[in-house]
Design goal:
The complex is a heterodimer of chains A (259) and B (213). Chain A is of the alpha/beta class and 259 residues long. Chain A has helices at 13-33, 76-91, 138-146, 188-200, 212-245, and strands spanning 36-42, 63-68, 96-101, 123-135, 153-167, 172-186. Chain A has a 6-stranded mixed beta sheet with strand order 1-6-5-4-2-3. In chain A, helix 1 (13-33) crosses helix 4. The relative contact order of chain A is 0.16. By secondary structure, chain B is α/β, with parallel strands linked by helices. Chain B starts with a helix and ends with a strand. The chains are: A alpha/beta (259), B alpha/beta (213). At the A-B interface, strand 1, strand 4, helix 3, strand 5 and strand 6 of A face helix 1, helix 2, strand 1 and helix 4 of B.
Chain lengths: 259, 213
């Protein structure tokens, strides 16, 4: 073999350059076009059918206290934002709303937050959020790297919004856990594919990119909260009617003090 | 490098599980037609034996969880929203009402139970009645298919009354006209507002009306 000749099976220098340039171009394109697509999927409770119209005046005769409790998924600031938005939701439907943010369910709201000119709230809506499950799908990330992000790397989490509704005396009227799932797909294949489909094929209601996930989640949550509070309001009315019928002599006596 | 790329592509269908969330291959509408629930691997194995496997008793360094989905029986929009909301949870509503009736009035265990449903749609009302009767039978109570009736004059007067007066008045008239006997207990399932998605229950025994829920 002459010195300087290539061993058999090795492509010549120009071919190797072309392959290297092609791979570099693919890598650069993948990096430039890669992005995240975050999708929202409602689980139990969040996609239940709702009858009440959140745009109508459903609570014109209702005093409502919205109580947000910070926790693992909800920091104090986020709890404040949630309370403000939920409060606005019910004010738009005619309710008189007061909001409180405390650390524990039995913690009393500050006196400064209580208005002495308004009657006490007839219903209390307690909101908590917690993480049910989270995972990163390590195999999908390996494939993501191996295919230059053509196959997306997937991260998902399942959250629960716990809702408790009580009447003015603390009697429990309704309790519900609204669960949803957020799936985040990272990669050029997922981002470009969904973007193209959004532009070319999908209707407005079916689009996935942008802040669609947050908007859909908010819409579902507010609808379900409106329906739950409306049901609790009617439940309270029924119980009040029944209490008005029971004579005082039939009510249990206070227990005798123990000496 | 290209072999890594090709092998990764070839392995993708076997590594990626079928995901019910919206994406390239599943529209948002199609995803919303599924009723999905996140459960533990053990619960998933009980509901879907052979499909979901829990961790080994000694552990296998993998945390498992499952999302179980079932396709909705009725296409969205086929029924009115109110009917859909009631019927999609009818089993749960019926069991709650029957359980509450027995728990709050254990003294009526030996009575013959009748069920009357006040709902605007007759087909839905009959389904609610049937489900409630089945739930009462499941509680071990004696249930009759007989429907108490009122005269035309009574109906005309009662329908003009406010709801909080109408139901107690109807209960008294059932006893007076013989529609309900001394040993009968009528469980009335009522929908009081077109915007609500729950059912209320009232009990009529010997001319006395009581709201249970």
């Amino acid at each position: 073999m002459r010195s300087g000749a290539l061993p058999p099976g090795v492509p010549p220098h120009s071919a190797r350059c072309r392959v290297g340039l092609a791979l570099g171009a693919v890598l650069a394109l993948s990096t430039a076009l890669t992005g995240c697509v975050r999708v929202y999927q409602p689980l139990s409770g969040l996609h239940r059918v709702v009858v009440v119209d959140p745009q109508a005046s459903n609570f014109s005769d209702l005093g409502l206290r919205v109580h947000c409790l910070p926790g693992e998924l909800l920091g104090p600031e986020e709890a404040g934002v949630l309370c403000d938005r939920v409060g606005t939701l019910f004010e738009n439907q005619g309710a008189r709303v007061s909001t409180t943010i405390t650390g524990r369910p039995d913690e009393q709201p500050e006196l400064a937050a209580v208005s002495f000119t308004q009657p006490p709230p007839q219903l209390t809506l307690e909101l908590r959020a917690r993480q049910v499950h989270t995972s990163r799908h390590p195999l999908s990330w390996l494939l993501c790297i191996g295919t230059f992000t053509l196959v997306p790397g997937v991260t998902e989490s399942t959250f629960a919004q716990d809702v408790v509704i009580k009447d003015g005396s603390g009697f429990l009227l309704a309790t519900e856990s609204l669960q949803g799932r957020l799936v985040q797909r990272f990669g050029v294949g997922s981002w470009v594919g969904n973007k193209l489909l959004d532009w070319i094929w999908r209707d407005d209601a079916d689009k996935l990119t942008g802040d669609v996930a947050q908007r859909d989640l908010s819409a579902d949550l507010y609808r379900q909260l409106s329906q739950l509070v409306f049901n609790a309001k009617l439940q309270r009315q029924v119980l009040l009617e029944e209490a008005a019928v029971i004579p005082a002599s039939a009510l249990p006596l206070h227990p005798e003090p123990v000496n | 490098m290209e072999w890594v790329f090709l092998i990764s592509l070839a392995l993708t269908p076997f590594v990626s599980p079928a995901d019910p969330s919206p994406g390239l291959l599943r529209s948002k509408t199609s995803s919303r037609s599924l009723d999905c629930e996140r459960v533990s691997a053990e619960t998933g194995r009980q509901r879907r034996p052979g499909w979901i496997f829990p961790s080994r008793p000694r552990g296998d360094f993998v945390e498992r969880s499952a999302v179980i989905c079932a396709e909705q029986l009725m296409r969205p929009g086929l029924r009115s929203a109110r009917d859909e909301a009631i019927l999609s949870q009818l089993d749960q509503h019926a069991r709650e009402l029957a359980g509450m009736a027995q728990a709050l009035r254990p003294d009526l265990q030996g009575r013959t139970w009748l069920v009357e449903t006040y709902y605007p749609s007759v087909p839905v009302a009959s389904k609610i009645s049937f489900a409630t009767k089945a739930a009462l039978v499941g509680q071990g109570l004696r249930v009759s298919d007989r429907t108490p009736t009122l005269g035309a004059g009574d109906v005309e007067v009662i329908t003009r009354m406010a709801p909080q007066e109408a139901y107690p008045a109807a209960c008294q008239r059932y006893l007076a006209t013989g529609g309900l006997g001394q040993d009968d207990a009528l469980l009335a399932v009522v929908s009081r507002d077109p915007r609500e998605t729950i059912l209320h229950a009232g009990l009529c025994t010997r001319g006395q009306w009581t709201w249970l829920q």
